[in-house]
Automatic annotation (TrEMBL):
It comes from Araneus ventricosus. Gene3D superfamilies: Cytochrome P450 (1.10.630.10). Coiled coil: none annotated. This is Cytochrome P450 4C1. It is found in: Endoplasmic reticulum membrane. It comes from the Eukaryota. The gene is CYP4C1_11. Its main location: endoplasmic reticulum. One of its GO terms (molecular function) is oxidoreductase activity, acting on paired donors, with incorporation or reduction of molecular oxygen. Transmembrane segments: none annotated.
Length: 212
């Protein structure tokens, strides 16, 4: 999203802890079907804490979105006063996902702020610790399959034959074909998101039955 959380320096730790609590509450509820009805779940202590954590997370996401919107407006205003040469240089810079969403919002008002917020909520939650989880499982797989580990090592030695101080660009990453296969196989064996739920908000018909 282009926003530094500064967790290592002690900032936004309540947000990080809230995300952990939300994940634990979701799994706790998933394994207990009697908690599926909202009226029952939110009457429990874990349900009430889950609701409080959601409010904290949504509050920070809303704050980040507001700050980015104000910053984007300022950049747009400033950019209109620059030379076209400066604009072309700036356009080559890879932008965070949130800024791309905001730019789309400015171009197409039908893509509302609510739509942006839903995307932000999804990415902030879906992207939380997923990379670290995949890395942990990948290292585990490499540990139990030493022959695969050797193949990865040989590939990296070939790529970095001049030393490991080389800047790892996208072009260098593209050469890591075998490592990419290892990561993809890890994701197949240990998916970060093993299932996705959907909630229907309108009635639909299956043969002669109308379901709500």
């Amino acid at each position: 999203m282009g926003v530094s959380m500064n967790l290592l320096s002690g900032e936004n730790c309540d947000y990080s802890e809230a995300m952990h609590e939300i994940e634990r509450a979701i799994m706790y509820r998933t394994l207990r079907p009697w908690l599926y009805p909202d009226i029952i779940f939110y009457s429990t202590s874990i349900g009430r804490q889950f609701k409080a954590n959601l409010q904290l997370v949504h509050g920070l996401n809303k704050k980040v979105l507001k700050q980015k919107m104000e910053l984007t407006k300022y950049i747009k205003t400033s950019a209109s006063e620059k030379d076209t040469e400066n604009d072309s240089v700036e356009a080559k810079v890879r932008k965070p996902f949130l800024e791309l969403l905001l730019e789309y919002h400015w171009k197409d008002p039908s893509f509302t702020e609510k739509d942006i917020k839903e995307h932000v909520d999804t990415i902030m939650f879906g992207g939380h610790e997923t990379t670290a989880t995949v890395m942990s499982w990948a290292l585990y797989c490499l540990g139990i399959y030493p022959e695969v580990q050797r193949e990865v090592q040989e590939e990296l030695d070939t790529i970095f034959e001049n030393g490991m101080n080389e800047y790892i660009s996208r072009a260098v990453l593209a050469k890591m074909k075998y490592l990419e296969c290892v990561i993809k196989e890890t994701l197949r064996l240990y998916p970060v998101v093993p299932f996705i739920t959907r909630e229907n908000n309108r009635s639909f018909k299956v043969r002669k039955y109308c379901l709500i």
